[in-house]
């Protein structure tokens, strides 16, 4: 139903890491797959419900976003990626269908992690989008990559944030 994310992850990580494995110490928390229309969102969401666990379908910035725990996690190198984020397209915005971004959990506070990105990955300070630092829930840093792709960094895993929002144990 979904293409394997290996080509996407390989290219994305190669464009981000100066040497392979520079981010291996971080949890690759989840991967995002975008669709082109509301109908595509509903079709894929319903198909994913058959074999996977829907952690939440929430309204965020005026559109639905579903988060699934995949029954068969993807494996990329030494990583197991268990969570998939499926956003409904924003009204008036077009996204080509396919993988769009990944999100990592940091090993330190975001401000210190931004310094680490500059020092260890050579990311220019101007490329680090800090606008998500003011988010009330699960603040983030973002790096925009070529091809419309991006990488986000959070201090907390998405499934823990969802469990907290739903009043459940993580």
From TrEMBL:
InterPro entries: DUF991_YecM-like, Glyas_Bleomycin-R_OHBP_Dase. It comes from the Bacteria. Pfam families: YecM. This is VOC family protein.
């Amino acid at each position: 139903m979904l293409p394997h994310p290996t080509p996407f992850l390989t290219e994305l990580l190669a464009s981000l890491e100066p040497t392979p494995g520079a981010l291996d110490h971080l949890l690759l928390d989840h991967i995002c797959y975008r669709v082109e229309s509301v109908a595509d969102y509903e079709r894929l969401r319903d198909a994913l419900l058959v074999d996977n666990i829907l952690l939440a379908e929430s309204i965020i910035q005026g559109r639905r976003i579903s988060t699934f725990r995949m029954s068969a996690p993807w494996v990329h190198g030494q990583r197991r990626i268990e969570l998939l984020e499926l956003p409904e397209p924003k009204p008036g915005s077009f996204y080509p269908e396919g993988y769009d971004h990944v999100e990592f959990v940091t090993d330190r506070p975001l401000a210190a992690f931004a310094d680490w990105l500059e020092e260890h990955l050579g990311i220019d300070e101007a490329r680090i989008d800090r606008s998500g630092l003011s988010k009330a829930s699960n603040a983030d840093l973002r790096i925009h990559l070529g091809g419309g792709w991006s990488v986000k960094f959070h201090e907390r895993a998405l499934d823990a944030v969802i469990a907290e929002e739903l009043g459940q144990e993580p």
